[in-house]
Request: fold
Amino acid sequence: MTVHRMGGTAVVMDKWDAELCLQLVEQYQIDSAQFVPTHFVRMLKLPQATREKYDVSSLQTVVHAAAPCPVEIKEQMFDWFGPVIHEYYAGTEGIGFCYISPQDWLKHKGSVGRAMVGQIHICDENGLELKACEQGDIYFSGGPELAYHNSPEKQAEAINKNGWATMGDIGWVDDDGFLYLTDRKSFTIITGGVNVYPQEIENILVAHPDVMDVAVIGTPDPDFGERVTAIVQLVNPEQAGDELAKNIISYAESRLSKVKTPKQVDFRVELPRHPNGKLYKRMLKDEYWRNTSQK
Reply:
């Protein structure tokens, strides 16, 4: 809307399609674009010959947000688009805003940037502030006041004893003040008393050549409470089967510790994502836990 208001041309797709996006960039010589990491993955999964058909050199600024982007995926996008990729971390709560330039990201790979609105605090479960490089709940102070409409309980839960507010994410800050996201706190899997963060596992699995999309959740397990389960959308759905499931588990085993390696791989034709790229992970969790409760 801002581009349109300033007299620029805004190209809006009715529905996301990776190849069509590249075609439009070339056709309209688009110089600025905004994506989410899922879009990056879909474009990178296109055959090399398809990607090379389109000229994307007009892109001067590419912005992404909405979810953590795997380092390997972003590195590949830098190799393809060049050092034009900017990233920000924020939320509709408006309590804080972080930004990282392409140049800073190359020096702090995996970071979502430093705070431009608010001050970052990493706290433990008791609300005590942690040192640099220690992982905990992400809080902001000094920014706009947090307020949830008609939900005083949710608002109270998001504000700690210091008056700092959180959007529900876990992460850490390096010595230079750059923030790194671990995962949403609500997505944490507790298996055998150990906290496992799905984002790290998803970042590994999405790089598998046969995987188009993946969601890692905790599913019921009689011995460990929760089982690390990967729900996978394949590049070629016809490949789904036990053999590929074992291959994906082996791929994860070689890159992750035993407790983080998925114990179960299920296949779906498509994962429940909003057109903006947001994954409805709660829908998947509810399905697995509901099916268990009905047995």
About this structure: The mean pLDDT is 94. The CA atoms of residues 219 and 227 lie 5 Å apart. The longest strand covers residues 211-221. The two ends are 50 Å apart (CA to CA).
